[in-house]
Amino acid sequence: MADKKIISCAITGATHTPTMSPYLPVTPDAIIEQAVGAAQAGAAILHLHARDPQTQRPTAELDIWMHILKSISAQTDAVLNMTTGGSTFMSIEDRLRAPLAAAPELCSCNMGSMNFGTYMMKEKFKGKWKNDWEEDYLEASRGAIFRNTFADIEYIMSSLGEKGTRFEFECYDVGHLYNLAHMLDRGFVKLPMFVQIIVGTLGGIGPGPENLNFMKETADRLFGKDYRWSVLAGGRHQMNMATMAATMGGNVRVGLEDSLYAGKGKLATSNAEQVRMIRTVMENLSMEIASPAEARQMLGLKGADQVAF
């Protein structure tokens, strides 16, 4: 089992807006449908954000979250990984409201504050917006800070840890790995750790083999063999960085939260399409794909029968 690879799929996120792709799931029912499809295609972990059915904006509304979680879990045994990042514009209280109520097996945990810039995306869609809020939403990231202070991280780890939730530690830059090591030293982190190395996001470390190698080498120095790792890359770098990670012994994350494309200039028609793409690459390289049950064992998760949804 140690050699099997976990595929995570991030279904919608809070970065892309409805205008950017007709295939981006921006309502609860669309999120549910695409999440189930991604699991059927081979994703053992589904990373989830919620969106409002009317406005299509990211939301922290508990009733919407519970509808999404219950509906997906009724149709698949995939691990449901809830965001604690929410969006740059949510308070830490809003970001944790649904995870604390749902007590999932797995949550994301962002390991540092950063400038998370999405404002450049609006240049491509001037005057073509489906919703009035989209352009201002993207532009607001120019002056916003994605807040994840040490106090925030402590709160996330302690409050969700009490419920048996484990974490996907999202590290957008080298300093985030050192922040994670600091929290490990202080006893906030339980092993085995699941570290998500993120490259190619404006505000974090850039894409490319040299940056991925540096992040992995730094993690090795800090954590030794006491962690499992995965890679996600933003935009057009998604598949090549995921392939590189897999060949280096890591796990992978794909999904429309991270990239809207399935090849140069070709919009992905679903999250499942991206899962099938990376799965094909990995299986052609003689790699075995982990099932949800195997992913739970590899990451030390509490089990789907221990959640509150």
Automatic annotation (TrEMBL):
InterPro entries: Aldolase_TIM, BKACE. The keyword Transferase applies. This is Uncharacterized conserved protein, DUF849 family. The lineage of its organism: Bacteria, Pseudomonadati, Pseudomonadota, Alphaproteobacteria, Hyphomicrobiales. Pfam families: BKACE. Keywords: Metal-binding, Transferase, Zinc. The keyword Cell membrane does not apply. Its cofactor is Zn(2+). One of its GO terms (molecular function) is 3-keto-5-aminohexanoate cleavage activity.
